[in-house]
Write a structure and sequence with these properties.
There is one protein chain. The protein is an alpha+beta fold. It contains 17 helices and 17 strands. The strands form 5 sheets. Strands 12-13-14-15-17-16 form a 6-stranded antiparallel beta sheet. β5 and β6 form a beta hairpin. α15 crosses α17. It is elongated, with a radius of gyration of 33 Å.
Amino acid sequence: MKLAAELSRPQSGRTLYLLDEPTTGLHFDDIAKLLKVLNSLVDQGNTVVVIEHNLDVIKNADWIIDLGPEAGAEGGWIVAQGTPEDVAASAAKGKRGIGRSGETGEKKVSRLFRSPVSPDPQRSYTAEMLAPVLANSVRAERESFDVAAETKAKKGDTDLTKVGRGTKLPWQTDGERWHTVDRFTHDGKPCRWEGSALTCVLDEIALLGGFAEPNFNHRSVVEVMPATKAGGWFLHVHTAQEWWVKFTFRVKKNSFTTAELATQFNLPTADQLDLPVYGNEPRVVAQNLRLPWQEVNFKVHWKKEIDVPAFRKFLADAKRAFLAQSGTEKLNPADLTPWKVLGKKWHLAKKGFSSPPVWDLTVLERLIERLNEAAPEANWDWENKQVVSVRLNGDEATFAEIYTKRPGGADLVLPTEPGRVALGRIASLGHEREVASHRMGEAVRMRFTEASQVDESALRELLLELVGGRD
């Protein structure tokens, strides 16, 4: 795949490709395809050096250098070299040679090559094995890989980026079953907590009245909002943990305390349960937020833990505390979503990191300058909490994404068509870099930690090239 991608790049004919046993694990048909790709690279003026034992590859080489006669300490000499025909012909010229384990005898051996280091003639097993292969082969024009012909659209072709686009995910088709019966963790393991615990809580909330139907349309969260939609969500249920289902209630600040709740419910810690999870922290916690709200979290494994009068009383109290806050005060949008209010200032500020950043924040200013230089008419979307999106005029697709709130560095993502940018092209850019799959096909991903990394001329050239490719 990577070799085929190289063929789609502009070729200078001055590239050296070094491959170490590329046929390992390949089927015979795949080896034939590999040879076509290698031939194409050579036809374009490049040099391909292959370390290989496969005779189908060896017989197609322009020049062979055979090291031997044995492996390890018993090898290392150049025992034969030349075209495949020269090397194969040398197998019949010798009369005596050194065999395996040092034995000697009257055998067909390779053309004797006297090493500058070792004056003794050495045996070429490659020559002996290659000779009958060539004798039974038919000479023909070697085939090359035609990139233009292979990439040309054909009738019946399917765009892989559109496959499954209209298919609904299981939590979108039957969300309630997904969250209460199927229940998988983020890494695909089955959840071990009782699904009936979630059903029990949702049923009790329905009996209280005043709330909309639960929203199951998310992979790992069930949301309950008031019927009026005022004040935001009341309950978030996190269903993708293996041993716990986590209920997070949103109420007016100072409505509950952890100590009081711990006394009312007396839930044992993880260490006190016969479960393969550990921890001494309480399983019910009330935490005041900087906003006028408080979050109350319950970690539950069995339905019996919350199917009790104390929990039903808590739900009634939580409903009153939620409505008291959501019905009497209007929320300040700047408190809830400062990135939408502040825009660019939010992304350049020190706020919003999960832990203190270890990189120079002036990197972002330089990165924005570089993108503006390459695409001065681009449209910038600052209204996401952690990502800035850049689109070229008239283009719905994203040209660039900057992840601004990651502690390890500022991450620049440049979506491209597959094979357009090779990893070697960006090898010197940024602190880290990769070419990886992306929802738009492929993307160049680079992390910057110092402002000087953004000033590299190679980065400017890459951005200008990608902008030009979108015109």
